[in-house]
């Protein structure tokens, strides 16, 4: 039973743009939760572990969203919970506001909120402590967190108050409240990272399930053999021009250049409008994906549901089912945009993302492993460079910085994410769409190849690649846990998928057939 629910050609360009942007959305499977690098000098009085700090603050007694900071190598150590020695204290901005000279504003038993510049971090801390401050918060001059360490020439600081840095955008929120004459209170502590992250198994299942589901969708749900000419127009009429997009080896070069330029743009020009542009692109692809998935499932359950049509001037016949599902998808996406930062916003984002990726893997095909090798190796090198090598050029990992986003504006949506239930930060584990789509293209190819050559699960490639993808993703999370830093997932996924099909094909004497296939 054929179900004509494939997307129209006019939507393919938008889908491909989302596919290319997918590699800018996440640095693999997570981001670092610790800042300590073990390279800066340590000696008595300056040997603290650099810790991620939770900065809670209240404006006129009303609790605000907590901010993130980093503790200094020197100074008092913060408690690990809000109730174990932590105390809410009034925030005061010194005068001068850099805390490089004695403050005209009383600092006794307060949290001094100073700006960066004019003198060293140690001098700021000594001045604030001499003025009676109980803690010091330093506002950075950029949206990043600077490690506050000592040099080999510094004498022991002997500072007995906690010193914490926050980003410029975070500090601006506190400064704005103080400037308006509000009473601001601050409480700081450094939560410990939980030994077990219960979100990772669920994220692993979502990623593996999405690849498996998208690969077999045409056969299992649409009910037809996968081929290049089963697409249909929006109204369901046959359209010979609406074909699947077949990737070529040149796609690898286009991918490297386009994704790198977009990544650098987001790195240097982080702004609300660029983040909202990505949200818009995500919603366009997700609406198409939700319409496709919902229509496919509806027609699979009731084949006659796709028969009623309405004729529109200039468009032609349009399925009533398409109008209904497209409208519902638009409402769903609009609701998510309005509530994307709510505690349950991740659910809507995952639903939209999974539907979009299912559609992309129906529309975009790798015809053989020659194209797969070019694209996946390019993506492999791209990940390695922008995660591990870029800090040598830009002083920080470009991809991880972009993936983390900023404190203002929407977060980048091209990720699947799960909340860390056991984490005091209430953060998320994430995996970028590219870490699902790029290996997924190869896994989907293996399924089509098996079907076209009469292979089953025992003598085909699909099951082996699914197991390889699941194993590679598991290795990604093991690496994340052991190295305690963001991992480029394709570092593990490319060898476990492309490597598996190449070795298995060579062993079976079918490597040439896989290399030159047209499926």
Question: What keyword list fits this structure?
Answer:
14 helices, 46% helix, two-stranded parallel sheet, 519 residues, PA_domain, seven-stranded mixed β-barrel, elongated, aspartic endopeptidase activity, intramembrane cleaving, Preselin/SPP
Provide the fold topology.
Layout: H1 12-21, E1 52-59, E2 62-63, E3 67-71, E4 89-92, E5 111-115, H2 121-130, E6 135-139, E7 163-166, H3 168-179, E8 184-189, H4 199-222, E9 245-246, H5 251-268, H6 272-301, E10 309-312, E11 316-319, H7 320-338, H8 345-363, E12 364-365, H9 369-394, H10 398-404, E13 415-419, E14 428-432, H11 434-452, H12 462-483, H13 490-508, H14 511-515
Parallel strand pairs: 4-5, 5-6, 6-7, 9-12
Antiparallel strand pairs: 1-2, 1-3, 1-8, 3-7, 4-8, 10-11, 13-14
Mean pLDDT: 84
Shape: elongated
Overall structural class, as computed from helix and strand content, comes to alpha/beta
Which residues form runs of ≥5 with pLDDT under 50?
1-10, 25-33, 229-242
Count every beta strand, where a strand is a DSSP E run of 2 or more residues: 14
Arrangement of strands in the largest sheet? 1-3-7-6-5-4-8
Rg result = 27 Å
- How much of the sequence is in beta strands? 5-15%
Largest sheet composition: 7 strands, mixed, barrel
Number of distinct helices: 14
- What is the N-to-C order of secondary-structure elements (H for helix, E for strand)? HEEEEEHEEHEHEHHEEHHEHHEEHHHH
> What is the helix fraction of residues, given as a range?
40-55%
- Say what oligomer this is: single chain
End-to-end C-alpha gap: 21 Å
């Amino acid at each position: 039973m054929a179900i004509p629910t494939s997307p129209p050609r006019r939507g393919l360009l938008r889908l491909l743009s989302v596919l290319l942007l997918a590699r800018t959305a996440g640095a693999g499977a997570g981001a670092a939760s610790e800042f300590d690098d073990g390279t800066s000098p340590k000696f008595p009085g300056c040997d603290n572990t650099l810790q991620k700090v939770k900065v809670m603050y209240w404006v006129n007694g009303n609790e605000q969203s907590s901010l993130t900071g980093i503790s200094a190598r020197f100074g008092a150590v913060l408690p690990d919970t809000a109730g174990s020695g932590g105390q809410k204290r009034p925030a005061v901005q010194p005068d001068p506001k850099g805390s490089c000279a004695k403050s005209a504003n009383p600092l006794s038993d307060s949290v001094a909120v100073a700006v960066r510049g004019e003198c060293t971090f140690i001098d700021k801390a000594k001045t604030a402590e001499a003025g009676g401050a109980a803690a010091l918060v330093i506002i950075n001059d950029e949206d990043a967190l600077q490690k506050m360490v000592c040099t080999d020439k510094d004498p022991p600081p002997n500072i007995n108050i906690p010193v914490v840095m926050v980003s410029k955008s975070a500090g601006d929120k506190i400064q704005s409240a103080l400037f308006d004459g509000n009473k601001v209170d601050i409480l700081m502590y450094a939560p410990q990272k939980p030994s077990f992250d219960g979100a990772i198994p669920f994220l692993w299942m979502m990623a593996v399930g999405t690849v498996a589901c998208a690969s077999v969708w045409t056969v299992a749900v649409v009910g037809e053999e996968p081929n290049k000419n089963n697409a249909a127009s929006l109204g369901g009429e046959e359209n010979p021009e609406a074909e699947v997009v077949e990737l070529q080896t040149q796609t690898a070069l286009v991918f490297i250049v386009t994704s790198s330029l977009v990544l650098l743009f987001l790195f240097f020009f982080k702004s609300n409008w660029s983040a909202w542009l990505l949200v818009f692109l995500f919603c366009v692809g997700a609406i198409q994906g939700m319409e496709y998935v919902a229509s496919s499932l509806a027609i699979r359950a009731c084949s006659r549901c796709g028969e009623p049509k309405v004729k529109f001037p200039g468009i032609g016949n349009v399925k009533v089912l398409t109008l209904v599902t497209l409208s519902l998808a638009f409402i769903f996406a609009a609701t998510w945009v309005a509530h994307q930062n709510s505690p349950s916003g991740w659910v809507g984002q995952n639903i939209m993302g999974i539907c979009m990726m299912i559609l992309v893997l129906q529309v975009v095909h790798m015809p053989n492993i020659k194209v797969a090798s070019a694209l996946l190796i390019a993506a492999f090198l791209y990940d390695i460079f922008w995660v591990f090598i870029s800090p040598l050029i830009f002083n920080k990992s470009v991809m991880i910085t972009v993936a983390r986003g900023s404190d203002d504006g929407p977060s980048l949506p091209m990720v699947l994410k799960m909340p860390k239930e056991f984490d005091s930060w209430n953060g998320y584990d994430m995996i970028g769409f590219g870490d699902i789509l790029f290996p997924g293209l190869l896994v989907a190819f293996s399924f089509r190849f098996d079907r076209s050559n009469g292979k089953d699960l025992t003598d085909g490639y699909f099951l082996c690649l699914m197991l390889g993808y699941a194993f590679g993703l598991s290795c990604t999370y093991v690496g994340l846990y052991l190295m305690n830093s963001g991992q480029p997932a394709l570092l593990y996924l490319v060898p476990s998928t492309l490597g598996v099909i190449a070795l298995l094909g060579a062993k079976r004497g079918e490597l040439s057939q896989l290399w030159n296939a047209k499926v």
